Amino acid sequence: MSYREVARELGIRDTYIHNWKNAFEKDGTLAAEVNREVSETAELKRLREECRQLNMERESWSRLVLPTSSISRGDTKTGSSNRTGKPQAPV
What we know:
By secondary structure, this protein is an all-alpha fold. It is built from three helices and no strands. Helix 1 packs across helix 2 (14-27).
């Protein structure tokens, strides 16, 4: 979108947009905003990758640990056992 199109859409003269852009470039605001967006994008990408890896690890652990832990606790369809190994009535 050109300056002229933006200005027309906002109902202002295109020289205002040029002046604002030049002022932002001069005081460093524009560069700071661009750098912030780039760093946020990089951080978001890193966090998404970390989340993906953690989800994969969780799935792997779930497949390995959950069946074993439910057996060691004595969970069955008919009830669970206490520390003595004797079945208890379902609650």
